[in-house]
Design brief:
Elements lengths: L8 H19 L5 H5 L7 H7 L6 E5 L5 H8 L3 E6 L2 H14 L3 E5 L13 E7 L9 H10 L1 E12 L1 H4 L1 E3 L1 H4 L3 E3 L10 E4 L15 E4 L4 H10 L2 E9 L1 E2 L6 E3 L5 E3 L8 E8 L1
Parallel strand pairs: 1-2, 1-4, 2-3, 4-5
Antiparallel strand pairs: 5-14, 6-7, 8-9, 10-14, 11-13, 12-13
The structure holds S-adenosylmethionine.
């Protein structure tokens, strides 16, 4: 397998952004660290229902942030490994591991460099909520994810729907109208965003405000899955989101319902099995 030689300049900037966000998110009530430490799970209903029983399964969590979901899978009996390129996030994940005494392994790595750092096969490769947009070469990412699966193992991705990630709106100015904010189709040069805050409430403004995100179309996601000997068992689209995108209302199950008159797909989940 071709290994990525060097982290690109956009990914280096994203890493600074994520190192700062990791610390800020850890303190944010929205990340529910306190509840997690009291024994609760941070996993959401969709992945719990769609992945089912993970007891005794070897699970690799890509882009695990500071490991709340990874360790929540461990609480459900999975043998977990979490990977993230933010050393700050991995440090915090190891602190949570120590505090909870949950058996787990955390690795600091940019995903394209992971094959040089992690060997072995898994029953499940899991990635959730805000992962694909940080990846420039998605075909490579899917090839790597698939390479870690045993025959019969499952790749499960749940993330923002590509249709939704290409759109934006400004309710105050435009009312209920969405517009196409960026190209729906992938471009090598990512979209630049400057945000002083994050998608959860944080105490202080970010110093590392810039981040770069790549848009991937539906076929950019599906075709590499097919190419890497993964049989798609389902693709689901949901009309609600996993964070407050504005003009949304939190539902009882932790997802966010859109208050716009017309529905659009906001979350996409895919389950594929290695053959
Ligand atoms: C939105 S978070 C993932 C959300 C996660 N499900 C959660 O809420 O805990 C995105 C994560 O991707 C990581 N990340 C971004 N680009 C990466 C890359 N190229 N390699 C590895 N991790 C990356 C970030 O450090 C961050 O922890």
């Amino acid at each position: 397998m071709r290994l990525e030689k060097k982290t690109d300049k956009y990914t280096s900037i994203n890493k600074k952004n994520w190192n700062e966000r990791a610390g800020a998110h850890f303190q944010s009530k929205d990340y529910r660290v306190k509840e997690f430490l009291s024994g609760k799970s941070t996993l959401l209903p969709l992945e719990l229902q769609e992945l089912g029983n993970v007891k005794g399964k070897k699970l690799l969590h890509l882009q695990c942030h500071f490991g709340l979901d990874t360790l929540s899978w461990a609480r459900k009996g999975a043998i977990v490994t979490g990977v993230d390129f933010s050393d700050k996030a991995i440090k915090l994940a190891n602190e949570l591991k120590k505090k909870t005494n949950l058996s787990s392994t955390f690795i600091c790595s940019d995903i394209p460099e992971l094959p040089g750092k992690l060997k072995g096969k898994f029953d499940i490769v899991f990635a959730s909520y805000g992962v694909l947009c940080w990846i420039s070469d998605l075909a490579k990412w899917i090839e790597i994810a698939g390479s870690y699966l045993k025959r019969g193992g499952i790749l499960y991705i749940i993330d923002g729907h590509p249709f939704r990630t290409a759109l934006d709106y400004d309710y105050k100015r435009m009312g209920d109208i969405f517009w196409v904010e960026c190209d729906y189709f992938h471009k090598k040069t990512p979209n630049k965003y400057v945000f002083e805050y994050s998608y959860v409430r944080i105490d202080k403004k970010l110093k590392n405000k810039i981040n770069y995100e790549w848009q991937h179309s539906m076929s950019d996601i599906i075709n590499p899955i097919i190419k890497n000997k993964l049989k798609i068992e389902f693709i689901h689209e949901f009309p609600f989101g996993f964070f407050n995108w504005g003009r949304m209302k939190k539902m009882r199950n932790a997802y966010w319902k859109s208050l716009h008159k017309k529905s659009i797909p906001m979350i996409l989940s895919i389950k594929a099995r290695k053959y």
